[in-house]
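Customer escalation, tier 2.

The customer says the design service returned an amino acid string that "doesn't look like it belongs to this structure." They asked us to rerun it and document both sides in this ticket. The original structure tokens are below, unchanged.
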């Protein structure tokens, strides 16, 4: 199955992550909790079909780490 990469143009899943990151900063929510939510939205975005939760987690991990390392 071919996965569509998340673009840095703040659309789709990345837009959700940005929304949540703004709410989460300074709230005490752990990095793993952030990743879990981002992975959930990735699965939802593809309809939770024909996917792999490990792939969702790993992609979300990259997304969240990138966002955390470049605060707006």
């Amino acid at each position: 199955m071919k996965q569509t990469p998340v673009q840095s143009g703040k659309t789709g899943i990345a837009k959700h992550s940005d929304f949540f990151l703004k709410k989460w900063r300074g709230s005490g929510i752990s990095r793993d909790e952030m990743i879990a939510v981002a992975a959930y939205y990735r699965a939802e975005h593809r309809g939770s079909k024909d996917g792999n939760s490990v792939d969702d987690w790993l992609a979300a991990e990259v997304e969240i780490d990138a966002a955390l390392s470049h605060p707006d």
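Tier 2 assessment: The sequence is consistent with the input. The two ends are 33 Å apart (CA to CA). Residues 53-69 form the longest helix (17 residues). Sent an explanation to the customer and offered a walkthrough call.
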